[in-house]
Backbone:
């Protein structure tokens, strides 16, 4: 079958999709977006978390046909999604304006500082706080944490733990993931207050 | 300002190079990992690639009467179905130490989930469905599931005709390896004891549960060889096992490390590597294999479950008199790392204590249970769980404080191990206990608020099972000792290739090793070492592959020590060559070139007094300095097979934990409130990563204390919970705050004085949690993991 849907603001068309394929499989193997991870493929680990019409879901549990005509945001689109949200496009699917697209040019990015890489605040906070080790859980956690901060700009630790309880991490013991979310929240608040961090 | 010249300027003192060792520099792969661009082994893709699938045994011990693959082969989209009979070379077995594992089952299967056939097809589902059409006729064989059935008079032999180097000293062919350690005279010393404590302990089978599944891509090459992209812990060990069964020389199997989603010991053994290569070479097409989580539980070895018997004695003033123990590890159907796990379990069985008179025996069994091998802590974990329970029992019996009793018997630098090896670097066991005890305790009844109980902070959490009724707090302590590096005479070397040149007007270092980066941050540390030794800012880390010499395994807390040491050594040699170039070109400009100790810092050559002699850019110009060099730590020796004596270990690593738990005593639910850790790391090369390792290791110890166990049905030897639905690892809700106190006492034998750190926190975490639960409930609790029924007696 053919599935038409929007991924990270771009219209996509996946052909020859077998009816049993998950959204995760279509993203990873048919659309070249392997950022969403396949740690358990049974909805227990959260590493495949994406936004489906804004709602965080385990993409391994969503049949590909269910996303027909809908909007998906993956970790690959998280930075643009956060940027557009900050600029007032709530769906994150507003695309790039023509004049901006025409002015686009490659910028050097520094993998050490993240400078110039255009990361979203939560992505940068994960790097800065040491929340990434093997990194396999990271994409799902980023999507989930970004969604948390979208609806709760200053979450308590209990709020963070509740929001991320569907995402397994085997490396970090979660402490630095908590640090990262706290850091992103603090930076967001500082920015809102105009003080900067 | 224009026109003003020749005014005095500051002389640049060698500005310290930024991003060197001791700083918390950030991961060089961090950006790729947060954007989803980092290429893990399951993310690989190749045009025309096929998908491989493994058909696994449904029985634990059975004769293979017949295998019929014809129907599977006839399926549209199927390119190959291979069994043992299709193996191309004379060598058909592999293994880390003992080559006892068939690439595909031959004659019989020895455990549930053993690979029997492999399929390649154009879609993973096509491969799965084809595999389901392979017809296998099994004839059941009697099961070996524990020590009694392994050593019974009529016990079936798991491996007939053993000819490995352990068979000569084991009392039964179903014992992989046996290591006794005898020192002093335990029976004599026992007479001095005022109290004697005996206990039997059971440690469950833990899974590494790394999140990135076993996966990789094999691409056949024109010269008849194969390119293999894979997630592993040791490329060269894989290579040594893969090439012979493919019938290829090692140089025709070119391996590159793909992104590794965690390892924890579970990737020391071969999983899909050989199968993918076989299918690729057979079909002439690239083949990708990705296990799902169910298969992953069968696709790698687990932590050895163990039964441990201990006897300790002490005088009434609290001094340990002697220790006797017997540790029985279940190695499952194949040897994997069992011999080395036995060596660790026995040699570290006394813990970080002074005990002069010991009588120790450790064995690993062959059974029909799932194969067990390496997992973080490697034999020392099981022992620590038992001896720390013994310490509490002894202290209680003597009426002494549990921490003070440990401190009274704590080893220190100079203590002789049961193996006769002196501990010749700092061993701050008493100090770590003091530190962890001195940390402030979390406040009582944190769940209480003006709005009632916050159930999220209580045992049972959002299940809303209690608002504080029946909840009792407990506190427990534990400390452990782990060896660092490969032991018992193993040639545990690493190799580093370092290059220095000027690129775009800047001096740049390139570090190339075969070290498997599995998440631990070795790539971060290598760049830091290069900056420190070569005074450059820009360091490029070359992908790990087999085009450079072996780095040894990312195991045994050894990589920062050994490959870090190799990188440091190679950098030092490169530095010497750079300075030679400098002396040749500029030696006449300044006498210090010949007389002073010279360093590279901040892109410059400086004297040890800080005077700048030259820019590296001017020294090097267009010259490239590159060399590859092996590096070894000081050698170890094998343990004597009768007495266990020998300087078998390279270095020791120590951590202590304090656990605070709250237990709902009515429902048997445990909430760990805090798990504080103090650890000596020698030198924290990257403090942020060090703390991350300690917290991660601590959490895996917590998991096996209260949640994690692979359940093997004793009647069928079949695995009952191969999924994340049924095998539970700690979530963020199960994991408490983990405050960490890092101590840095240099080990003069190690590069920068560092100590391998990854495993020690996994040891003491588990017994500390158990001690806290015992403290809360008053129960004896001799088995881990603790389950609700153990607490409620139901």
Residues:
């Amino acid at each position: 079958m053919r599935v038409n849907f929007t991924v990270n603001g771009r219209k996509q068309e996946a052909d020859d999709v077998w009816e049993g394929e998950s959204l995760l499989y279509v993203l990873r193997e048919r659309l070249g977006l392997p950022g969403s991870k396949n740690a358990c493929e049974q909805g227990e680990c959260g590493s495949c978390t994406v936004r489906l019409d804004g709602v965080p879901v385990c993409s391994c549990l969503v049949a590909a046909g269910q996303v027909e005509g809908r909007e998906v945001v993956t970790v690959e689109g998280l930075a643009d999604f956060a940027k557009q949200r900050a600029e007032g496009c709530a769906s994150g699917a507003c695309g790039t304006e023509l004049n901006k697209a025409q002015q686009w040019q490659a910028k050097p990015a520094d993998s050490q500082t993240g400078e110039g890489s255009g990361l979203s605040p939560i992505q940068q906070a994960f790097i800065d706080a040491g929340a990434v080790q093997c990194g396999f859980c990271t994409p799902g956690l980023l999507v989930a944490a970004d969604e948390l901060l979208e609806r709760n700009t200053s979450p308590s630790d209990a709020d963070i733990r509740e929001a991320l309880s569907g995402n397994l991490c085997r490396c970090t013991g979660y402490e630095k993931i908590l640090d990262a979310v706290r850091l992103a929240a603090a930076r967001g608040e500082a920015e809102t207050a105009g003080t900067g961090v | 300002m224009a026109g003003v010249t020749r005014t005095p300027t500051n002389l640049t003192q060698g500005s310290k190079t930024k991003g060197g060792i001791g700083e918390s520099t950030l991961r060089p792969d961090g950006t790729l990992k947060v954007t989803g661009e980092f290429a893990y082994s399951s993310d690989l893709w190749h045009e025309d690639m096929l998908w491989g699938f493994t058909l696994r045994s449904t029985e634990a011990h059975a004769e293979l009467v017949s295998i019929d693959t014809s129907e599977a082969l006839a399926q549209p989209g199927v390119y190959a179905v291979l069994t043992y009979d299709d193996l191309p070379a004379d060598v058909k077995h592999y293994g880390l130490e003992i080559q006892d594992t068939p690439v595909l089952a031959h004659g019989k299967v020895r455990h549930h989930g053993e690979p029997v056939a492999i399929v390649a097809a154009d879609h993973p589902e096509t491969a799965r469905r084809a595999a389901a059409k392979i017809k296998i006729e099994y004839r059941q064989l009697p099961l070996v599931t524990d020590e009694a059935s392994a050593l019974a008079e009529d016990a079936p032999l798991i491996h007939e005709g053993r000819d490995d180097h352990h068979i000569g000293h084991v009392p039964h062919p179903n014992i992989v390896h046996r290591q006794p350690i005898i020192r002093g005279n335990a029976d004599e010393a026992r007479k001095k004891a005022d109290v004697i404590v005996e206990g039997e302990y059971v440690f469950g089978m833990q899974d590494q549960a790394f999140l990135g599944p076993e996966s990789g891509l094999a691409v056949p090459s024109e010269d008849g060889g194969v390119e293999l992209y894979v997630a592993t812990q040791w490329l060269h060990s894989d290579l040594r096992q893969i090439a012979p069964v493919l019938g290829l020389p090692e140089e025709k199997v070119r391996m590159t490390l793909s992104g590794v989603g965690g390892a924890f010991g579970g990737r020391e053994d071969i999983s899909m590597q050989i199968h993918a290569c076989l299918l690729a070479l057979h079909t002439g097409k690239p083949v990708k294999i990705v296990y799902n989580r169910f298969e992953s539980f069968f696709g790698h070895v687990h932590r050895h479950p163990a039964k441990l018997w201990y006897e300790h004695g002490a005088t009434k003033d609290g001094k340990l008199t002697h220790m006797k123990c017997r540790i029985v590890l279940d190695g499952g159907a194949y040897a994997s790392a069992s011999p080395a796990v036995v060596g660790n379990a026995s040699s570290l069985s006394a813990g970080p204590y002074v005990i002069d008179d010991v009588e120790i025996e450790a064995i690993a069994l062959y059974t029909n249970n799932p194969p067990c091998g390496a997992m973080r802590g490697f034999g020392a974990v099981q022992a620590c769980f038992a001896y720390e329970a013994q310490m509490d029992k002894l202290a209680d019996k003597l009426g002494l404080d549990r921490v003070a009793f440990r401190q009274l018997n704590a080893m220190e630098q100079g203590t002789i191990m049961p193996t006769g090896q002196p501990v010749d670097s700092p061993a701050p066991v008493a100090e770590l206990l003091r530190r962890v005890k001195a940390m402030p305790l979390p406040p009582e009844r944190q769940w209480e608020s003006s709005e009632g109980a916050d159930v999220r902070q209580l045992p049972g959490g959002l299940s809303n099972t209690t608002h504080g009724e029946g909840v009792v707090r407990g506190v427990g302590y534990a400390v452990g000792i782990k060896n660092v590096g490969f032991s018992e005479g193993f040639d545990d070397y690493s190799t580093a290739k370092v290059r220095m040149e000027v690129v775009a007007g800047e001096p740049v270092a390139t570090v190339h090793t075969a070290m498997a980066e599995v998440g631990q941050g070795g790539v971060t540390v290598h760049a830091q070492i290069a900056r420190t030794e070569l005074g450059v800012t820009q360091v490029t880390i070359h992908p790990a592959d087999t085009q450079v010499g072996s780095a040894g395994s990312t195991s045994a807390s050894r990589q920062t020590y050994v490959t870090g040491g190799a990188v440091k050594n190679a950098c030092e040699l490169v530095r010497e060559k750079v300075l030679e170039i400098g002396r040749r070109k500029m030696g006449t400009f300044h006498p210090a070139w010949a007389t002073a100790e010279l360093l590279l810092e901040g892109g410059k050559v400086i004297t040890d007094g800080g005077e700048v002699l030259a820019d590296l850019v001017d020294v090097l110009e267009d010259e490239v300095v590159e060399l590859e060099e092996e590096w070894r730590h000081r050698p170890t020796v094998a343990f004597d097979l009768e007495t266990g004596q020998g300087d078998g270990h390279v270095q020791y690593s120590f951590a202590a934990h304090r656990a605070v738990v709250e237990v709902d005593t009515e429902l048997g639910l445990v909430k760990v409130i805090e798990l504080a850790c103090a650890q000596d790391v020698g030198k924290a090369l990257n403090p942020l990563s060090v703390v991350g390792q300690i917290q991660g290791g601590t959490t895996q110890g917590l998991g096996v204390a209260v949640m994690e166990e692979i359940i093997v049905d004793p009647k069928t030897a079949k695995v009952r919970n191969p999924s994340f639905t049924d095998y539970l690892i700690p979530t963020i809700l199960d994991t408490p705050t983990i405050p960490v106190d890092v101590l840095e006492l240099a080990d003069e034998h190690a590069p920068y004085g560092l100590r391998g750190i990854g495993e020690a926190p996994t040891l003491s975490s588990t017994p500390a949690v158990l001690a806290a639960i015992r403290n809360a409930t008053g129960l004896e609790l001799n088995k881990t993991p603790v389950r609700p029924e153990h607490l409620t007696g139901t």
